[in-house]
Specification:
This protein has 305 residues and is an alpha/beta fold. The chain is built from eleven helices and eight strands.
């Protein structure tokens, strides 16, 4: 095969990878995070808790722990953190379709909590990660002090997304779909170089076969392996955050979650799409820290020393 010089797009993607790694290293150092891994290969960033409830970030389908970096860097340094790459995502080990269910992801989060010494935490899940947070709160309520659901899926995800398994899946873009995908997910431009965004989306394009397998495992597993249906049994405090311009998950899903969860409140962010923690990290950090503080106060009142 004849050598060809790299295209302008190739150079932009390569530059974006270098820039992204530099940004990650800077934030990890500034936020005093360590890079950790469980015995079975789940990668995560961690910071020990000096006081208060730890914050645990669970990304969406096809994402990774880095989606929480900008927002989590704005939380107090005394706040314990765990930002997780779910199995098959980011730097965690690949898994077969049978181990890509919501329940398997929830069990991976539990292993991180155990390794980090977090007895109870507030779980924050974006999109698919919201389904993981709901499964943890339903099946292991003693480990969950509260949940924050950000542009989250609901129990009806299996009905809505099954058509994407066999048809066109907007969450797994093709090479020619990079620009439309960026416009689909993000309403507000991110405060990072455009080359970084192009690098991230290009990596998603190149992982299409693996992502198709992971998506089937996520969507087709119901019952106890999927998103819980009986949300009335999830009694911990819940904050539901949704972007007004979310083009992937309709705002009606968020209002349905608030109606079904016994102790939930809704915040709708205007001018924001499917990733509020990336598009409006300062606003999101304020919402998160306020919820964490209120949940801590509630815990102290209900569990006096």
């Amino acid at each position: 095969m004849a050598w060809r010089p790299p295209s302008r797009t190739d150079l932009e993607v390569a530059l974006g990878g270098v820039q992204m790694r530099a940004i990650e290293r800077t934030i990890v150092l500034a936020a005093r995070l360590s890079v950790e891994r469980t015995a079975d290969g789940v990668a995560y960033y961690a910071r020990a808790a000096k006081k208060g409830l730890p914050f645990v970030g669970v990304h969406g389908f096809g994402g990774d722990k880095e989606t929480w970096l900008m927002m989590s860097a704005l939380l107090p340094r005394s706040r314990g953190l765990a930002l997780i790459d779910l199995p098959g995502h980011g730097r965690s080990v690949e898994v077969p379709e049978s181990e890509a269910t919501i329940r398997h992801h929830a069990e991976a989060v539990l292993r991180v909590l155990d390794q980090g010494g977090f007895d109870r935490a507030v779980l924050c899940g974006n999109s698919m990660g919201g389904g993981v947070a709901l499964r943890l709160a339903a099946s292991w309520p003693d480990r969950v002090a509260g949940i924050i659901l950000v542009a989250s899926v609901g129990p009806e995800v299996h009905q809505v997304a099954t058509a994407w398994v066999e048809g066109v899946n907007p969450l797994i873009p093709r090479e020619e779909d990079i620009e439309p995908f960026m416009q689909l997910v993000l309403e507000r431009p991110l405060r990072v170089p455009r080359s970084v965004i192009r690098h991230v989306v290009t990596q998603r394009v190149r992982r299409a076969p693996q992502l198709e397998r992971l998506f089937r495992g996520f969507v087709l597993a119901g019952g106890d392996a999927g998103v819980p249906v009986d949300l009335g049994a999830v009694t911990c405090p819940a904050l539901v955050v949704h972007g007004e311009q979310d083009r992937i998950i309709d705002k009606r899903v968020a209002t349905g979650l608030v109606k079904a969860l016994p102790r939930a409140e809704l915040v709708v962010m205007r001018g924001v799409g499917h990733a509020p923690q990336l598009e409006a990290p300062r606003h999101m950090a304020r919402l998160v820290e306020s919820f964490l503080t209120r949940t801590e106060d509630l815990h102290r009142r209900t569990n006096p020393a």
